[in-house]
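Hi R.,

Here's the input for the taurocholic acid complex you asked about:
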Amino acid sequence: MCTAANYLTKCHYFGRNFDYEISYNERVTITPRNYPLIFRDTEDIENHYGIIGIAAGIDEYPLYYDACNEKGLAMGGLNFPDYCDYKPLDKSKVNIASFEIIPYILSQAKTISDAERLLENLNISDEKFSAQLPPSPLHWIISDRNASIVVEVVEEGLDIYDNPVGVLTNNPPFDKQLFNLNNYMALSNRTPENTFGGNLDLATYSRGMGSIGLPGDVSSQSRFVKAAFVKENSVSGDSEKESVSQFFHILASVEQQKGCTLVEEPDKFEYTIYSDCYNTDKGILYYKTYDGPQTSVNIHDEDLETNQLINFELVD
Ligand SMILES: C[C@H](CCC(=O)NCCS(=O)(=O)O)[C@H]1CC[C@H]2[C@@H]3[C@H](O)C[C@@H]4C[C@H](O)CC[C@]4(C)[C@H]3C[C@H](O)[C@]12C
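And here is the predicted structure with taurocholic acid in place:
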């Protein structure tokens, strides 16, 4: 499971919990402006915006899980099993394999409107990266400081949703996640009144009773509601320290502790392998692994005019 979120103070913050049971040697990867982006079925892009993100440390290709470009556009891929339905190549469209979509969008788009224009004629194809790495069933959240969208390929085709909550988890499809929030509209950060009905003498006995009913389990639909509630009620100072700290607290509200989600007997557990937070205005990536300290990498500290990927092992 995974959860992605946005947060706006003086700067815009975007990031995610990466929850899974296996790791592909994740690392921080910076794609500098002149690294040639080779696409399988459409024209290569030789020069482009610089991108920073977390990628699989598998090959000399930026296999991003989530990333942000130097113009402040950010994107993350989250699991979307059962519903995801990539299509075969379609000659009438621009064909981009699912593993290429983050570099394809972030190399060229500055804003959500730019991204939407690129998506208009896109076919997200079922082409595999390699025999060992078939396509992963993902959906994507794309955000700039003003807006957020969700991109899903389902049986009927490509869906692009406005994301007014700025949160994404996993199944079901985004429109259903959003609709489900209606069930929680009575939740509040305030002390509730007794509206039970009748003449029962009911009283509050604890702070926080306005949020009774807020899901606390780690299923994808529950995490969506919990992260949305925490994010919508979030208050912090607007300094970098306070904003990043608050952002990590939003993600912490839906993190998965080792041991709570058994995915395979006897002891394979899904847990929050890393959490990250991009200051999209400044090109800074903050992250922490399950056992590691908070660490940061600033895209502008690196030479973005080179043509080789720049990789940093995660500090664990
Ligand atoms: C599994 C990851 C998403 C985490 C997540 O949402 N977990 C929830 C699980 S569940 O819903 O609760 O079952 C996704 C996010 C990014 C994915 C990776 C990236 O897309 C990069 C490559 C793409 C290749 O096609 C496959 C390997 C891969 C290295 C992917 C493996 C895996 O599917 C990743 C790591």
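One thing worth noting: Residues 2-184+215-313 form a domain with the Penicillin V Acylase; Chain A fold (CATH 3.60.60.10).

Cheers,
M.
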